[in-house]
Request: fold
Amino acid sequence: MNIEQARFNMIEQQIRPWEVLDPQVLDLLFVVKREDFVPAAYRNLAFADMEIPIGSGQVMLAPRVEARLLQELGIRKSDKVLEIGTGSGYMAALLAARAEHVVTVESRPELAEFARQNLERAGIANVTVEVGNGANGWSQRGPYDAIVVSGSLPVLPAALLKQLRVGGRLAVIVGEAPVMEAQLITCSTEGVYNTINLFETVVPPLDGGESKPGFSF
Reply:
């Protein structure tokens, strides 16, 4: 497989058509080597338009979804970023290339270790991998300039919003299959949030996310 050709095809055929046109984000997809964050058995599928299994029943999100969320967050060099759902560490690596520091939280210790090794091998030093349930955020290291949830949540916990600084952005996919909406939520002033619906999609639920309360009769 010609890896550079496959990477180019991924960007041109999957990511650009999904309205990812920010040149800095597109450049980053060439620089951060996605194939280095994929389990060896799936390396040939690193650039496919699919969710890639990474063990423990978890997956990497499709490249176009990750790229679009990254673009919408508009990460700046001074940003302190929280990612919930580390997985392979690839999204954390993309965020780290743009941010001052990234805290990423993974509920499964074996995946946290996989991500740590991948990030270390890639020479990325400005990411802290924490083990725990981050479905309600990670307030002990907050507040944050940007938060991204790498998995879907049935409902948006209020605790997550409270961990945003004024001007902070949250990228999250909310809902339950078959209807989920990717949203960008900005904290405009203390306690006031502005929501933009970005696109409809379906992605696997985040580990530890609360279920929607059921109806009782």
About this structure: The beta strands are 52-55, 58-60, 80-84, 101-106, 127-131, 144-153, 164-176, 179-189, 192-201.
